[in-house]
Amino acid sequence: MSIFNHNTFQKFSSSYIDYVLNQNQLFVQYNAILADSISKTLLENNITLTNFLSNDAQSKMRKTFDQEFREKIKKDGFVNSLSKTMDSWFTLSEYFGIGRWYKKSVDQFSILNKMLEPLRDNLNRTDSESIKMDGQYHLLHYNSKKVKQDPILIVYSLINRHYILDLLPKISVVKTFYR
C-alpha cells in the first residue's frame, strides 16, 4: 500500500523544491552579507596581517562588523528570504508530521513536569510552612532556629519557581540569611 498517492507526491515534491530553493537563496544572501561585512570591517579599520591579532584591532573589528551586519540583515531582501524559507519549511513539515510529534513531546514533558513538581518543591529545601493567601498565592514562612531575628521578606521572580533561591543546601540563599 502506498503512503502517497500521485497528487500528494506532486505536492510534496513541489514543497520540497520550494524549500530547497528558498533555503539556498537565504544562504546566498546571508553569506553575501557576511562577506560584505567582513570586507568593510577590514577596510575601515586598516586591518592588515601584522595587526590583525592585536586587541585594539579585534575590538574595532567586532564593533564595525556588528553594526554592519545588523544593518544589512534588517533589509527587506534578507527578511523576505528568511520568511519564505520558514514558510516552505512549515509546509514541508506537514508531510512528516513534525507538528504532531512536537505536540506529543510537549504533552509528555508537561505530564512528567507535573509528576516531578511536588518532589522539586520539597527536596533539599529549607524547613518552611505554607500560609495561604487570597487567590492562588501563598506565603512561605521559613522556620528559624534563632529566637530574636528580624524578619526578612523574600519576593521571588514571577517567572521562576519559588525554590530558585533554595536549590541546594550548600548554596541556598535562604539558608545564608539564617546565618
From TrEMBL:
<feature type="domain" description="Poly-beta-hydroxybutyrate polymerase N-terminal">
    <location>
        <begin position="123"/>
        <end position="175"/>
    </location>
</feature>
<dbReference type="InterPro" id="IPR010941">
    <property type="entry name" value="PhaC_N"/>
</dbReference>
<protein>
    <recommendedName>
        <fullName>Poly-beta-hydroxybutyrate polymerase N-terminal domain-containing protein</fullName>
    </recommendedName>
</protein>
<dbReference type="Pfam" id="PF07167">
    <property type="entry name" value="PhaC_N"/>
</dbReference>
<dbReference type="GO" id="GO:0042619">
    <property type="term" value="P:poly-hydroxybutyrate biosynthetic process"/>
</dbReference>
